[in-house]
Prior knowledge:
Chain A is an all-alpha fold. Chain A contains 5 helices and no strands.
Amino acid sequence: MTLWLTIAGMGLVTFGTRLLPFLLVERIEIPARVQDALKFVPAAVLSAIVAQEIFAPGGNVDISFDNLRLVAGLFAIAVAAIVRRVLITMVAGMVALWALQALA
Amino acid sequence: MDVRRREFVRGVRGVAPLALGVVPFGLIYGAFAVDAGIDPLPAMLMSVIVFAGSSQFIGARLIGAGTAPLVVIATTFVVNLRHGLYSVSLAPQMRSLPRGWRAILAYLLTDEAFAPTSVRYASPHGPRARHWYFFGAGASLWVLWQISTIIGVILGGRVPESWALDFTLALTFIGVLVPALIDRPRLAAALVAALVAVATVDLPNRVGLLLAALLGIAVGVALEQLRPTPRPPVVEA
């Protein structure tokens, strides 16, 4: 039961976030300053998530070469910077991780 | 009728290259959710009810770890906040549409739907039926997402943990994030957010993520004040 409530809650906040601006567009003018701040939401949020995933996989900070996800992640960042294609970045990162796991 | 169908098909085609990334992600989400201990039905319905891959992935992991529901929901909110940004960006285009349309399009609004749609709306002389483009893009992604989720759930337990497929979450985000860091304020925002996120990893309730996001945004805004970048032309309805 809790699971369904959780999923429903997730759906509600997600749909709400997407819907509210569409519904309120006639009534509310978003001040320019807020729009300027919103610009940075993707960069900040995605970066925070990625950072935790690669620097602290499993919850504990591990900044060493033993942290294979960190090494593979940094490689993926370099690939992404060069090719700028999501699929290639994903493949390169996974191959790198598997290679590192095999060598470890 | 003709222009509506044409826009719809254009939308489907416009989203096709991004769909290539969505399908494996759906497979992986489905398999990962089941591996994390979520029953097949809720795992599949999450793709319908939430329809936001990255938050489903993170949510599945948190749920599997026994995290409190409110924390899961709050984390989902933070992770999907950028969809609110997309919504604000496209909202002027909704002025001519009835509420039913707005609700459907809002439901379908994901990163992959937003990207080609915003480009389509940006050209100044497009037809008034471009919401059909939006609909075509969103609907095809929706179908693909549901199908790949189902297949992923079915494959579920058979995927060994050593394959580390949950790493694809970080990789997808890296793939989307890095090319988007087009100027120094954005780069600074990302770096600060990363630093704070790692430093606060031990804080409860994923508060660290929110803190990191807020500080990153603040730094980005501050840097932009110092050297203003020209604002892109506003998309008029």
